[in-house]
Amino acid sequence: MTFPYKFKKIFVHREAREDEITRRILNAFPQLPVEEVPSEAAFLDIVGAVPLTEGKKYLWLSRYKGNFIKYCPGATGTSRHYRCCNYLVINEATNCPIECSYCFLQGYVTNPAMTIYTNYQKIQEELQQLSAANPGRIVRIGTGELTDSLALDPIVRLSHKLAATVAELPNIVLEMKTKTNHIDHLLEMAYRKMVVSWSVNPAWIVQKVEHKAAPLEQRLAAMRKVNDAGFMIGLHFDPIIYYKNWREGYRELIAALAEVIDGSRIAWISMGSFRTPPPLKENIRLRFPKTPILAGEQIRGKDGKMRYIKPLRLEMYRTIYQYLKEAFGDPYVYFCMESLDLWKAVLGKAPANSGEVDYYFARHVHRQFPEFQFPEPEPARYQQPIWHAPGEATALWQAPVEFVGLNTTPTGEAQ
Ligand code: SF4
Question: Which of 22, 280, 287, 400 shows a CA-CA span of 20 to 30 A to 340?
């Protein structure tokens, strides 16, 4: 397959040179020069200071030394003000060959290269520990927090390794998120217990803003294949972007999605409006001076990020949610980093805390996908922190908000 990304050179950490992922990448790009370096410091001396656009043209293959599995930054950073959902992330790579104008990585990464960690066995071990430490509790976890899960996966094939691991773990729901159409290699797997998710936006936004991502028609064709093959599907309306014809754009987008996806295969749909920490906005202006995404009045939210003013967010969410209900019946929709009053105004539910949101997810996937035999959720389990390893003294993450117990009469019982 051909990729729309152009790389110039591959750097390999000495200790990663014999790793399977390294071999795969070297075989896939035989024309690229390869340099072996003795340490990360030596690599950063060469590439660390180049600008991001240039840095993305270098592949850096090394082993990750810390824990791959972490709490979603939204939960640890913003859940005092916004309802989060107890999602975990796997940082299997850092940086992304796609170039979305709004990408938060532009203000986040300190190493500009496309970094791929080659010691995937450590991720498999961590998943096994995570499953054992939280028996009976459904834990949702995804790759692609700091990259696109499938951009290079046809070469790297982390999906195959992780799907095989998760197939043996009753309580882990694995999600891979993408803006590509790189799914043919997923269809070759024997496993289907995976949520394949797409970040979606109207065709006009895709064309103007999501550079090097798959055009919408190609994503739709990929969704149809994944749907028909029996995977679970996730949709992320995030970031929702305001532009002149946004109503029409989102209406047409959702109608097109309904043509290719069966509502019963949808694990979840998220909505989140475009938001930026102020320094990121400056980076966007510098890197994409003609981008249309900086239109729309924004104010600073309680977490310091700039967001559209609340009446505009409310109008956009309500409109899109209405289209989704018309297209898919009663899909499981949640907000990413949104305030409780908007949860209530749009979705009609006011979850008491992250644990309650987490429980709703668990209940939904358990009911919706009996073929994967997820454990039946017990509400009390979701009031606990998520543990990382059996017997560890500290939780993977300790809730920054006080757990007040599950609201026994949540307004969200409707879904
Ligand atoms: S696909 Fe995701 S990680 Fe990649 S550039 Fe776009 S927003 Fe950033």
Answer: 280
